[in-house]
Amino acid sequence: MKTAIVYDSITGNTAYLARALQAAAPGAVCAPAGQAELEGAELVCLGFWTDRGSCSARLKKYLPALAGKRVFLFGTAGFGTSPAYFRQVAEHVREELPPSCVVEDWFMCAGQMPETVRRRYAAMAEDPMMGEKGRAMLAVYDAAVGHPDAADAAAAAAKLQAVLARLETAGA
Questions:
Q1: Which residues contact 165 (CB under 8 A, 6 or more apart)?
Q2: pTM for the structure as a whole
Q3: Rounded to whole angstroms, how far apart are CA atoms 138 and 103?
Q4: Tens of pLDDT, residues 76-112
C-alpha cells in the first residue's frame, strides 16, 4: 500500500515520530507538509504538534490536499498527557479534515517543550496570584520531558502497522 507520511514539526518531536512511522512502513515517502508528494498515496499519515487543542495553522492550510484520502493521524502534545486529552485533540484535528477523508486511526503522545516554556511556568509558580496554576503547569511540562521516546515511537509504529495490515486484508 502506497503510504505518505506528512508532518508539521517545530521542536522535532513530530518529525521523530514521522521517522519511526517511515521505518514501520517500508517504501513510505516522508516529508514536511507542503513538500510531500501525495499522488497515488492510498494512506496519508498526518503528523502534527498540538496548537491550542488542534493542529497548527500552517498544517490546516495543507488539509484540503487530503480530500478523499485515508488518513492516520499522529501527533505530540506538550500540555496535557492524559488519554482523554489526546483523544480530544485528535478529534479536533479530525474535524479540520475535508469531509471526504476517512480517519483510520490515530496516535498521540507527550512532546517535550522548549526550556523557555519551563522558565515562563516557573515564573508563574513564583507569582502569588498565579502560583498554583504555575506549579500545575510545571508538573505537566516536567511530565513531557524526554518525550516522545523510543516507547512512544514503537507504539506509534505498532498502531500504523495494525492499520496497514487491516487495510491490506480488506483489500483497500
A1: none
A2: 0.92
A3: 33
A4: 998 777 899 999 999 999 999 999 999 999 999 999 9
